Amino acid sequence: MRLPPLRSLIFEILNFLLSFTPLVRFVPKKDHFAPHPNAPFEGYYTRIQTTTGSTILLIFSSVFTAIEQPHYVHFSLLPRNGSGRHRIVVDKFPKITDANGPKFPNSVHEFSRVAKGDGMEGTYRICRDEQRYRLELDTSEYGKLEVSVDLTDRKAWIPGDDVSTPEGIFSKLIFLLPLHWNVFSTASSASYTITADGKPLESGTGIAHIEKNWGISFPRGWTWIQGFSGSPVTKEARHKARSFVMAGGKILGQKAFLLGYRSENIEWNFGPPYTLMPFYLPTPFMKESFDSKRGVARYEVGALWKKLVVEVQAPPDHDGWLGLHCPLFDGHGNTYAYESFDGSVRVKAYERACSLEWELVEDTVLDGAAVEFGGDYSFKLRSKS
Question: Are 241 and 186 in contact (CB under 8 A)?
């Protein structure tokens, strides 16, 4: 990897320190969902939960420094609990290029990811008011698939701040942190149409979670959890739907997590320093336990006056889980993560009372949730290492 110029590192540190001063209001905000040309890898991920309970998954990923399979496009349609007539999984390794569009001050930088090759053509277009996928996929099993997905009514990580990110001020450390995570939307409206050889296969609506990773390297082990309380029909109901997302694992000799919980009454975010586990050890603010073979996990994360307890249950033994290619340093020729969309996530929210005791303020169960174990968090991958 080509090292960034020294002046870029110095500017990055100064920009980070500036965030702690009143002068930060005069510094233009950067859209970190836009491409990062100097990043060795960058991956975009969209998960749609349809009104029928199915999941549609779309991935555009690139490892710019890799020689073998540097780019990856994934499309899948996964019925709930393995039921339904249509279960489609397509992995392609085309060439992906980025085409920049208009930039708006303190707002979304419009661009497209364009994929062509390995029996496919497609685009992922990001605009301020909508995002869309258009894919043509040649497959031996399903024929020629055409996929059209439109995403609107975006709900940013912090409503009212178009370029907000779970990392907060840490997103400014572009080169000094090896991995970054950004959530573009916690709840967008989705509409989709899928055809096979020109014949309608499935169409409908749903609710979408949109995110990306970028950085220098993927972690050795991680978990990712995402869920909605349902897939309402109207925009207003979707934005009021409860949702949860969490990503984290091993990084720089410790564990670190980012997470957010949304409901009608709560919009809570947690991140470092509260979510750090130095040398993988629990702290008074962050505790983790998991058994990927049993499909269970439990997380307890808090600050001084609020706390979440997250209990996860997914099918054991990775039964029915989807294997995914991940952006490792040598490309995407791997299966380095397993993901289920038949999980159940219980989120309990607490506030500290005047007595300093914790009081339960919300208790939510998110069914049909996405649960992912990657790297050495997955028992299947640990057994191979």
Answer: no
